[in-house]
Amino acid sequence: MTIKPVFRGRLIAIGGNENKANDLIVLKRVVQEVGKKEYKVVVITTASEDPEQRGKDYLSVFKNLGALEVKILDIRKRLQVNNKDFVKSLEEADLIFLTGGDQLRLTTILGGSKVLQAMYSCLEEGAIIAGTSAGAAVFSDNMIYEGKSEEGLLKGKVFTAAGFGFVENIVFDTHFIARGRIGRLVQIVTTNPKCIGVGIGENSGIIFKGNGTTEVIGTGQVIIVDGSGIIHSNIMEIEPGGSIAVENVRIHSIVHGYGYDFKKRQFLENLSKK
What we know:
By secondary structure, this protein is α/β, with parallel strands linked by helices. The chain has one domain (10-257): Rossmann fold, CATH 3.40.50.880. Helix content is 24%, strand content 27%. The protein has helices spanning 25-34, 51-64, 84-91, 103-110, 114-125, 134-137, 182-191; strands spanning 10-14, 40-44, 69-73, 95-98, 128-132, 142-146, 159-162, 170-174, 196-200, 204-208, 213-218, 222-226, 232-233, 246-247, 250-254, 259-261, 266-268. Strand 8 (170-174), helix 7 (182-191) and strand 9 (196-200) form a beta-alpha-beta unit. Helix 3 (84-91) runs parallel beside helix 5 (114-125). The two termini are 28 Å apart.
């Protein structure tokens, strides 16, 4: 079975805790992907519990990385989401960056807004959208928003909601290695094997390219969880809270310079040698 997810333009999903002070390996690559010496950045801090500080952090980072202009959209309420000035800033951006925090804050505040519509338009026009932690989780059409790591393989203990839909049939999980979240993605692909789970480690990211392929960057790992080959599971037989049994889930560990083809569901060997 071949599944063909849709990527809405150029996207970079980061697993959280990317280095912002020293080597900046992930954020430097984000800027490199923009492809311009003079580029404009818009940072959306909606997900954060401390949006003012997060805005200052990324303003400093992108200024140090040579941005011509960095604007912080501190959107905290639904009343702000149709602001014409915010929409204009997004329309002029080469890079839109979504900070970490709580992905439900992003969807409940920005969902169905002119700001979100402007982001869709920006992708279609060639801008990059990058997100870290919650800002990456929200890329999915169906996103994880809650579920304890240790309960990931108990039926019904992983909670999902509609995300922004920048990609289809792909579900992201972040801080993946540090927080032991493999069970969460195994449950997701067991309940719907057409989905591909993408678990992104800290200080790591995955670049989505227009041809359906991706490249991993950073110092950690990206784990792909593919359920298309599942032969059997007990998911329909057990009660909520019961332990999940599943046969033949396929898992790939991908590191910097390697990649994955989402159309072919295929591991890509070291891209830096090609």
